[in-house]
Amino acid sequence: MKIDSLRIQLLCWLLLPLAGIAALNIWLTYHSADHVADTITDRTLIASARSIAEQTAVTQGVIDVQVPPAALEMFNTGDADHVYYRVESHHGRLLAGYPDLPLPPQLPPTMRPAYYTGEYRDLPLHLVAISQPVVGAGAASPITVVVGVTLNSHDVMLRDLWTGAVGQQLALLLGAALLAMIGLNRGLAPLLRLRKAVLRRRSDELVAFDPQAVQRELRPLTEALNQYMKRVEQQMAAQRRFVGNAAHQLKTPLTLLSTQATYALRTADAAERQETLQALQANTRQTSRLANQLLILARAEPGSRRPRHELIDLAAAARQVLEQQADRAVQLGLDLSLTEPDEPALVTGDGMMIREMVVNLVDNALRYTPAGGAVAVSVGRRDQICVLRVADSGPGIPPAERERVFERFYRVADNAGEGSGLGLAIVREICLAAGGAVRLLDPPEGRGTLVEVTLPATAAAADGRTGRG
Ligand SMILES: Nc1ncnc2c1ncn2[C@@H]1O[C@H](COP(=O)(O)OP(=O)(O)OP(=O)(O)O)[C@@H](O)[C@H]1O
Ligand SMILES: [Mg+2]
């Protein structure tokens, strides 16, 4: 069983060993109480036996045993104990008492008591036997005096001594548990307050928590929480900026569309109307492309699409894109070519997104390269990396702009062509999601643009299946 309550865990660590110690203590106390009760019983037994022995004397040649009442009354503690005695001559002749009271296994030497236990009339007894010389008794001396007592008083004594100790131990344990609970509650209070504060917050309330409000051990938690909120805050700000920009970008062409439509409806001149409608059509195409780019960027963002791990042949993906763009290249008067690697360039990722990445790179090259130029796409392998390069002979991107063009909605200032400034942002987002990178390299011969995408290569599967569709 897994205990996930900190309170229970700490209490267990504290109270279980304490309970173990208390149990050991109770066991030890029982034995020492038993020993004390034994000693007291033995002392009373020997006192009783001695007083019987001392009252024994020879009167007119006969051994006379006088049992003094005090010798038996000293056992009268109100616990209804039975006392038995037996006095015998040296030859084993019964002089007084109970003839079948058990004797010790070995008769004790003179003046030395022998303590033992036995059973008499079905009751357990503690007994003592002593040997006592009697002056004038001749061969009958020394006599043996045995006194035995039932265990009632002994057991009551043991119980009293022991239960007191047990009570103390339990009270101590209870006290420790109570104090531990209070201590834990006090110790956990700042953490619970922090929890309450987190739960009470609105989802957009991302102000840092005060790390000093909790104990030193918990500060890393508050700091981690604060760092996390900071990241969320930054993310939220970026999202707000993006939505604002997107709305702005959509608003301009939509306003234009509305103006163009109004103008087309108003004008009486057929040629003018035709021209306006054509402009409106181009504008619609652009706006729809913008919406499409926005959609793809949203999909490329981490967490927006279920992560896919398809095996993709990068050369096949490039070939597919180039086939789609071939007619356009011819119309634009551009030479579009593809160089494929000898060995397969396999990568793992989202097939649709990887193709979308190639589309954006080829689209840029075709869009910004003047007629008569060339666009060369190449796919290759460098150790464990697949490389896709798109080179064109166009105007190029100034080195100072090479980082900024990857920003969302950023377009180079003197760029006359159509576009929303999202293409390279989409490319970078897709590269990052696939564990790769994209950068702009210095073009060979100093002119044109060279974009390089690097993606981690995947070893070819045994059956050679690749995701192309
Ligand atoms: N091959 C290229 N040659 C010259 N300039 C380029 C090339 N590729 C990108 N650029 C410059 O970088 C800018 C950003 O490119 P990006 O693809 O992100 O946006 P876009 O092409 O303007 O719009 P779209 O979202 O429609 O692709 C472009 O506006 C352009 O100025
Ligand atoms: Mg573009």
Automatic annotation (TrEMBL):
EC number, as in UniProt: 2.7.13.3
Any matching Pfam family: HisKA
Domain HAMP: 185-237
Coiled-coil parts of chain: none
GO molecular function: protein histidine kinase activity
Keywords: Kinase, Membrane, Phosphoprotein, Transferase, Transmembrane, Transmembrane helix, Two-component regulatory system
Main enzyme class: transferase
Catalytic activity: ATP + protein L-histidine = ADP + protein N-phospho-L-histidine
Protein localization: Membrane
Positions of transmembrane segments: 170-192
PANTHER family with a match to the protein in the record: SENSOR HISTIDINE KINASE YKOH (PTHR45436), SENSOR PROTEIN QSEC (PTHR45436:SF1)
Protein name: histidine kinase
Species of origin: Ferrovibrio xuzhouensis
Organism phylogeny: Bacteria, Pseudomonadati, Pseudomonadota, Alphaproteobacteria, Rhodospirillales
